[in-house]
Amino acid sequence: MFELLGIAPQALFGQLLLGLINGSFYAMLSLGLAVIFGMLNIINFTHGAQYMMGAFVAWMLLHYLGVGYWWALALAPVIVGITGVVVERLLISRLYHLDHLYGLLLTFGLALIIQGLFRNYYGVSGLPYSIPAILTGGYNLGFMLLPVYRAWVVVASLIVCLATWLVIEKTRLGAYLRAAVENPTLVGAFGVNVPRMITLTYGFGVGLAALAGVLAAPIYTVNPNMGADLIIVVFAVVVIGGMGSILGSILTGFGLGIVEGLTKVFYPEGSAVVIFVIMAIVLLVKPAGLFGRTA
């Protein structure tokens, strides 16, 4: 069948794998954005810079302290998450009662500052980050070669996304989070420290972005611009899935990554814009997004 279409099976499955990997990063980043927007009503444009910071923290842990990949997976999200907590307390918390535009402008400015600082110090050529020895090599599936590390990225992102969804949707903590969005005063009356919950939620969303950055570091070169272009696509993913929808962000992220990969096979010229075309169509048909709720 593939021969009739003039497509080599290896090329098709290779692009599908690439799309699934991209979808893994789309899902994790859009999940973090959805958590932050759903809880704080802040459009966090700094998310791409925080994704880049996660990759750089992993690189710095390795080259300055000798801390390897597996420890970086645990430490980098915590370190970058703490910076997010500081930003939320000092800056973002002052904007909750203002229009969304102020939060967007603040986080956009912070993203430019962070990227500029890393660009001035490390340049833009990119820094390599090696794959851990246990995840090198690949499996020959007959129709394609499956690199072990790329398979790990997909599995790890699925686990993180599903675990986050289960915590938010199926646990008491998640119930408190959802209730605090609707009626923070009532939740506070039950003894819950709502401001602390909001701060930690922002830090968790930032930590998700940093975790995605660590996973991306061995695949892409670590450079200050690695999140700048990606964040535009991720925002489109969030809009398509529905702003604030956790499940929508996960499913849409993986799905659009696969669609993008297939487009590179059948119509390469349209692969760069296919997600934005889908976004335009979805907004025309369902402005709240595929999984979003109308006000």
Molecular structure report:
- With 295 residues, this protein is an all-alpha fold.
- Helix content is 70%, strand content 2%.
- The protein is built from eleven helices and two strands, in the order H-H-H-H-E-E-H-H-H-H-H-H-H.
- The chain has a two-stranded antiparallel sheet with strand order 1-2.
- A hairpin with a 4-residue loop joins strand 1 and strand 2.
- The longest helix is centred in the N-terminal third of the chain and has 32 residues, at 9-40.
Topology:
Blueprint: H1 9-40, H2 47-65, H3 69-90, H4 100-122, E1 138-140, E2 145-147, H5 148-170, H6 172-182, H7 184-189, H8 194-216, H9 228-241, H10 246-266, H11 274-285
Antiparallel strand pairs: 1-2
Helix pairs in contact: 1-5, 1-8, 1-9, 1-10, 2-3, 2-4, 2-8, 3-8, 5-6, 9-10, 9-11
Mean pLDDT reading: 86
- Integer-rounded radius of gyration: 19 Å
Low-confidence stretches: 1-5
Report the count of strand segments. 2
Count helical runs: 11
Note the overall shape: globular
Strand content: under 5%
What is the element string, with H for helices and E for strands? HHHHEEHHHHHHH
Q: Please give the alpha-carbon distance between the first and last residues.
A: 47 Å
> What helical percentage do the residues reach?
55-70%
Indicate the structural class: mainly alpha
